[in-house]
Amino acid sequence: MTPDEIFQDRIDRGIKIEPKDYMPEGYRKTLIRQISQHAHSEIVGQLPEGNWITRAPSLRRKAILLAKVQDEAGHGLYLYSAAETLGVSRDQMIADLHSGKAKYSSIFNYPTLTWADIGAIGWLVDGAAIINQIALCRCSYGPYARAMVRICKEESFHQRQGYEILLTLCRGTKEQKAMAQDALNRWWWPSLMMFGPHDSESPHAEQSTKWKIKIVSNDGLRQKFVDQTVPQGEYLGLTFPDPKLKWNAVRGHYDFGEIDWQEFKNVIQGNGPCNRDRLRARIEAHEQGAWVREAAMAYAKKHENKAAA
Amino acid sequence: MRLGDNALILSQRLGEWCGHGPVLEEDIALTNVALDLLGQARLWLGYAGELTGRDEDQIAFLRDAGEFRNVLLVEQPNGDFAHTMARQFFFDLWHRLLLEKLSASKDERIGGIAAKALKEVAYHRRRSTDWILRLGDGTEESHARMQQAADDLWMYTGELFEMDALDKEMQQAGIGCDLAALREPWLNEVSRVFREGTLEVPKQSWMQRGGKRGIHSENLGHILAEMQFLQRAYPGAKW
Ligand SMILES: [Fe+2]
Ligand SMILES: [Fe+2]
Q1: Which of A44, A22, A38, A41 is nearest to A79 (CA)?
Q2: CB–CB of A152/A90 below 8 Å?
Q3: Which of A65, A228, A241, A277 shows its CA 20 to 30 Å from the CA of B68?
Q4: Counting Cβ atoms within 10 Å, is residue B233 exposed (0-12), middle (13-18) or buried (19+)?
Q5: How far is the CA of B10 from the centre of ligand 1 (A)?
Q6: Which residue of chain B comes nearest to A40, CA vs CA?
């Protein structure tokens, strides 16, 4: 057998691939792309929620939100480390993010306009992320799968706190309920887009599935998300912004309308409401932090020399 | 109330850093300190609330600037990372000394909260001390920035050791402590760390004051406008 055949055979037998194992270059590249994109999403994802930390409406909510955003930064760290095992440095990944070469989840290019958006992000965005990540816990690359297991443990708290924010709003005043409905109206479709294009349109789907980097199809995950989320929204007493959304007893699933793929493509290409702001904020943080990182390195070096002398 | 306001306002300032830190690890650490301080603020304000018949949120969100009792130091803007760290360092050193004393307070609740907070603040102090050293003895630029930050903030440190009538009353009752007596150990520690970090202890002697009496800098009004927005815009709503 060729090395590639042995590799595929290991994957077929469900043996995890570890950093020192042989892997085809395409497998490595695909993983780097996917894991770094995932890491960048955690980091950029801090921004829309961070936008409400200083305005959280109670001390308890502020503490929960701070803890949540801190978790996301931690997820970014685990994922950068997982990607580094594939031979790419964090600096390189960050440079690729800033140059626009690497992507992050488009969902974070939508603005958080009201407090209810913080609820909607937790409920829908973290909810969608969990569905994705649970599947990835079984992916073939060991460090990535293990990072996912660790991350999934924290994610359910994220979704719960978001749902609880909306539940409180929906049981509150008329204005609060309207705020919650408005948030669902704006976040529903972008959440469905998080699962990516139809599998028929997805360029790498087949190979990724064979390599067990992709475990469940985009459309399969999306359906699962809809089926799980719609009853939760009904319990809140909210209406989904999709007239075609309907239970289909024959299929045993919800039917739903078509995503606006034109919008999807545009946001990916950089035309979302916040693309420029998000990237600029990250670049600014990085550039303004340069002297701090340099100082830390210079200090470490001086003291290393002292210790050696 | 003063302790709660100090922790709350500083936490609010640190929360502004979220997602904008110089390096990912630092983003996490800053948020960590913000979370600790917020937790402490809730304990102090919760206790103050029990004594005055209000809850923590009424105290935090429904008072105007003149009713806040935090020191001026904590409401100063984040500035660059050096300013944030100088502010944190001056505060942490003092905070630790104060909490050490308060953990022996005759008021058991105060003693308990102080003892719990002390563990967290010991870590804050180590971290901000490390940064003073790194930035002070790092590069030429970081040294200059750190020195500038220390010079800019120095005039807000005097207030930390001021004893007013309420402080004296508390001290006599064995509930509070002598803040003026904390000045010497505080200054010794600042001098020691600054020397090691090749920095100069600022010489300026004129000190700003007023925070403890509710006379604040212009900053606090803006901090509160942001922090209290939802509670003010939707009076009586539950969140
Ligand atoms: Fe996450
Ligand atoms: Fe999350």
Answers
A1: A38
A2: no
A3: A65
A4: exposed
A5: 26
A6: B24
> Do residues A286 and B19 make contact, with C-beta atoms less than 8 angstroms apart?
no
Residue B239 lies in a domain: no
Q: B4 vs chain A: nearest CA distance in angstroms?
A: 12
Residue-wise pLDDT tens digits, B35-93: 999 999 999 999 999 999 999 999 999 999 999 999 999 999 999 999 999 999 999 99
Residue B238 falls inside a structural domain: no
d(CA B27, CA A171): 35
Cα A56 to chain centroid distance, Å, stands at: 23
A32 φ/ψ angles, rounded to the nearest 5 degrees: -60, -45
Query: What ipTM does this complex have?
Result: 0.96
Task: Determine contact, residues B12/B30, Cβ cutoff 8 Å.
Answer: no
The CATH number that applies at residue B86 is: 1.20.1260.10
A187 Cα: distance to centroid of ligand 2 (angstroms)? 16
Separation in Å, CA of B209 to nearest CA in chain A: 26
Range of the domain at B206: 2-233
Structure tokens that stand for A65 in this block: 């939100």
Q: Which residues of B are less than 8 Å from A285 in CB distance?
A: 19-22
In a domain, B168, yes or no: yes
What's the rounded Cα separation, in Å, for the pair A59 and A46? Answer: 19
What is this structure's pTM?
0.96
Which residues of chain B does A280 touch, with a Cβ-Cβ cutoff of 8 Å?
none
